[in-house]
Amino acid sequence: VCVWGSTGVEMAAEIKTEYPDKKVVLIHSRIGLADPELLPSVRQQAKEVLLEKGVELRLGQKVVSLSELQLNVTQRNMEVATERGETLTTDLIVCCTGLKVNSAAYASSFSDSLTDSGALKVNQHLQIQGFSNIFAVGDCADVKEPKMAYHAGLHAAVAVSNITNGLRGKELTSYHTGNITMLLAMGRNDGVGQFNGLKLPRSVVALGKSRDLLLWKSWREMKQTQP
Questions:
Q1: Nearest alpha-carbon partner for 100 in 117, 114, 120
Q2: What is the number of structural domains in the chain?
């Protein structure tokens, strides 16, 4: 697993949990795991969970010629070389790096408002740069915070409020990032995270998210009964 941010950390833990006999090696270009916005103690705890599960870590190094490797497809005896000269033999490379927004739906219409990653430049009201009547929410909004569904929901609430306020001639609401809330499901039986900047016990994260990945919350928000 080649990793950037929290996705690869969760992926490695998930694989090792469900397939404990599989050898899982996580390669990361930095020493600290998961998103840098997380508390250092939470990031350290994520590392401890991986090691407890038996995941091997190669930190502070990159994969050589990653773009030339067969990614996300099983193939026997592929060789992965790191910049430190180590060669690993694997049957599957799961690449969790290189977050880039899929801007195909709007790139031609908002070319002057795009960042290099494909996100849309927005102001504090989540209005797209150069437009007063078009808002961007979720991953496509260039807001300096981790890309998560939780944040997309917060964006949506602000955008809806501002559309209504704009039509009524009222003052617009500003979006503020605040303290980071993030839960990492590290297999169905463990997890780490923080709420409003406060570190949570692993058991709380496992109970709250890892068991069902918050599916109960989605069913409730859709006002549906989970089968």
A1: 117
A2: 1
Enter the tokens of residue 215.
Answer: 């599916």
Q: Which pLDDT score, from 0 to 100, does residue 4 have?
A: 63
Would you say 136 and 120 are in contact if contact means Cβ atoms under 8 Å apart?
A: yes
3-class secondary-structure state, position 163:
helix
- DSSP structural state of residue 58: E
Q: Which two tokens stand for residue 115?
A: 């960042």
User: What is the biggest distance separating any 2 CA atoms in the chain, rounded to whole angstroms?
Assistant: 64
Q: Which helix (H) or strand (E) holds 182?
A: strand 182-185
> Is residue 161 in some structural domain?
no
Residue 117 is encoded by which pair of tokens? Answer: 């990653």
State pTM to two decimals.
0.83
Mean pLDDT of the 110-139 span: 96
- Domain contains 167: no
Q: Which of 134, 4, 130 is nearest to 66 (CA)?
A: 4
